[in-house]
Amino acid sequence: MQLQHQIKLAAFDALQKMYQLQPEDISVTINLTKSDFEGDYTIILFNLLKPTKEKPDILGHKLGSWLMENYANLFSSYNLIKGFLNFTIQDHWFTDFLAKNFDDTNYLNEPRNGKRVMVEYSSPNTNKPLHLGHLRNNFLGLSAAALLDAAGYDVVKTCIVNDRGIHICKSMLAWMLMGNNETPESSGMKGDHFVGKYYVLFNDIYKKEVAQLIADGHTKETSEKEAPILKAATQMLQDWEAGQPQIINLWKKMNEWVYEGFDITYKRIGSSFDKIYYESNTYLLGKEFVEAGLSQNIFYKKEDNSIWADLSAEGLDEKIVQRRDGTSVYITQDLGLVADKYNEYHCDKSIYVIADEQNYHMKVLKALATRLQLPKADGIYHLSYGMVELPSGKMKSREGTVVDADDIVDEMIQIAATKTAALGKVNDFSSDELEKLYETIGLGALKFFLLRVDPKKRIIFNPEESIDFHGYTGPFIQYTYARIKSILRKNDIETSIDFPQMNTLLPLEKKLLILLEAFPSVVSEAAVQYDPAAICMALFNLAQQFNSFYNELSVLHAETIASKNFRLQLATLTAVVLKNGMQLLKIDMPERM
RNA sequence: UGGCUUAUAGUUUAAUGGAAAAAUGCUGCGCUUCGAACGCAGUGAUGAAAGUUCGAGUCUUUCUAAGCCAACCA
Q1: ∠ CA(A391), CA(A394), CA(A398), 5° rounding?
Q2: How far apart are CA A338 and CA A89, in angstroms?
Q3: How would you classify residue A284: left for phi > 0, otherwise alpha for psi between -120 and 50, otherwise beta?
Q4: Does the pTM of the predicted model rise above 0.80?
Q5: Which nucleotides in chain B lie closer than 7 A to a protein CB?
Q6: Which residues of A48-71 are buried (b: 16+ CB within 10 A; e: fewer)?
Q7: What's the complex ipTM?
């Protein structure tokens, strides 16, 4: 059982015996003791003053001495500062913990809980390559999936590909007009970049046409609507929906090119899906819910035959669910997909990793799903995240002002290569090993950079300043791990020696143990919150604590065999937590770097 | 016009209503030692105002600033 929880139970016991207070009537806050004070864990007394009708110093000493007497096995001393009751924990509690867990390579992973959860992420459009914002989405999705897996869930990773619509028609049209049958092969371009190039080309032409129309005396509004190339694209979308073979074939060909490009990028960043949904298959879904909603009076029809839901009771507005021409809208497809997903996988929860610009849309989706009584509608959760922006503002593919995903990954790997070469610690590596190492470090830096911030905050990415490799970064943690592995290569734990009980833990040893012992609760909390940033912070604190320990205390030259063995166990478990913890962020760890 | 989000050292971020924590930067120090992508010391912050509370960066209200959403777009 977790130490913090054990202290809480002890406190409950004390309050029950001394004040006849029941656990459900009081809240007890237990924190790690701040480093300025003596002690390991702190009970905060303020919210206990009322129920016990005591003053802080009286309550503190009563509680402190009672716990010292009745839980002598757990506490070795206490001190009271204002309303903070600080306890020092018996050393043997930590040494027992370490002895029990140091060789558990599965530490941090909970047993299966029999529940299934779906995580939908990435969701690209097929008219352009992935950019830095997509990377944030992918890393969040991957990490949320890994967190839930560690928490014991069966995780289904899915992706909805936005493979139809006006945007892809724009790329297709530009290619028909300007492409001269060029292909990714003939141009030597990656497929997604190739198609993206024509998307930008379309917009160049479009802007010129609009400018010409305005020069001819039309208003801005009509010009933007009437530009010939836009009308052609709209016509093409209609031809696609009519199933015109020529258009369908071109559409398939261009999408294939894009998928080939995506596959390369996904493979590099370690992204994969158990199930991919295509919007071209799902865009007609959900019609049956319009009928069902009408017959249950959840929806209503206006005079022009459009169908609406009034969500003002949920604090939302009216929402259209079917246009007056009888075609369905985005939200209706989404409802259909909610039902399809459930029918196939029966997930208890469904996590959508989608940018915060769709907060309102996702609220509406959940509200409608709830009203229509779709199964597990309450399990819909929008994992919302802020956009990645440039100092100049939002990234726009059609303007060409994006940080391309492949480019930034390349750049990070290049920086990793330069830094590694400068240090010259892995000169014996083969070129394959080096390539793998650079990728591990470069991607580690990038993933950590995007995950360490609270998901809902915007990230302003400045391409002028390269992503750091020092301090609160992925490479710092990888470096700490490589250091530990280096120690472990040079020292074997002598299991034959039955070493004596440790009498006194040194402060640096104990601080490390406290973090290791508390780590599983950080993970379970992060899994509940879908919050990889909490893992980043805890891993960094642990790595930092280990480095302090490392600089001060030698493993190899420990004073006694027992101490050496103990420190080796400490290093071993630290390595396990760092590695398994980084795995929750889907960041790999190098044995050497 | 409504709704949502954000605002903490020069910069980037932390903080279940309970002791404002780090990173980076800057200043100084530590490699003949298990790896200096490291460590140690110093420096410096809660947008404004009111309220609730024993206690507010955190909750409520108002204001300011930035962003997003709401329109038969996907």
Answers
A1: 125
A2: 50
A3: alpha
A4: yes
A5: 3-6, 12-16, 18-19, 21-25, 30, 33-40, 54-55, 67-74
A6: beeebebebeebbeebbebbeeeb
A7: 0.96
